[in-house]
Amino acid sequence: MERSMAEKLTAEFVGALALIFVGAGSIVAAATGASNLVGIALAHGLVIAVMVSSVGHVSGAHFNPAVTIAAFFTQKIKGSDTVAYILAQLAGGVAGALLLRAALGSRIADALNYGVPEVAQGGQLNISNGQAVLIEAVLTFFIVWVIFATAVDPEGAFNKVAGLAIGFTYTLGMLFGQPFTGAAMNPARHFGPALAGGLWDNWWVYWVGPVAGGIVAAVIYDTLIIKRPGSAAEHEVAHGNGAHGDETTRVAEDGPELEM
Known about the structure:
- It contains nine helices and two strands; from the N terminus they run H-H-H-H-H-H-H-H-H-E-E.
- It is an all-alpha fold.
- The chain has one domain (5-259): Glycerol uptake facilitator protein, CATH 1.20.1080.
- A two-stranded antiparallel sheet has the order 1-2.
């Protein structure tokens, strides 16, 4: 069943809100000594797994401008919908950060920087902004690759459990990247806390890296795997309704319509 744009944007808003509230909240908790890197990684991975599984059938459960832009570049979502999705995701990120401040109090949130992802600069973990962009790009590449493999590809075997695979990918990304860049892997994950706290250092890293990595992953997977000669989606209908889980109709070469 085709969902209305209001339903899709609501799903994107709530999903992004949950990611920032839980994910940034786990960073704040870790800074107080109440958690650690594993807790941070699991918080991010579990909230993504739960929210993708919950509303993937409504909006495609992007929750991430990098995913939406990657879907646009591979004609999985229309341009006008792309803009609306991104605005809903960013708004959800801001709402999640503001709710976090309300829940913890501005004193705690301000002191711990709202869980804003930061580039490690100083000490043994010191890296350049260019290295940070590369880390964010590679980690987001993995996320978008898994999204396309598990939920966009009509021949993928794991569509119904795509949320679990995508959540695990966020978890492994956090386990590696969090000490170096905060492992945002999502512009909204940086934008919401940064706006709430007024912390904009190296903000462009969290747009350039994830968007570039997502586009590369989507284009490679879509071109070389989904649209390879003889695949079920060789004659895919352009501009479907979204990525991972949304109702997109594809036409097989010699078979019936396939729906994601």
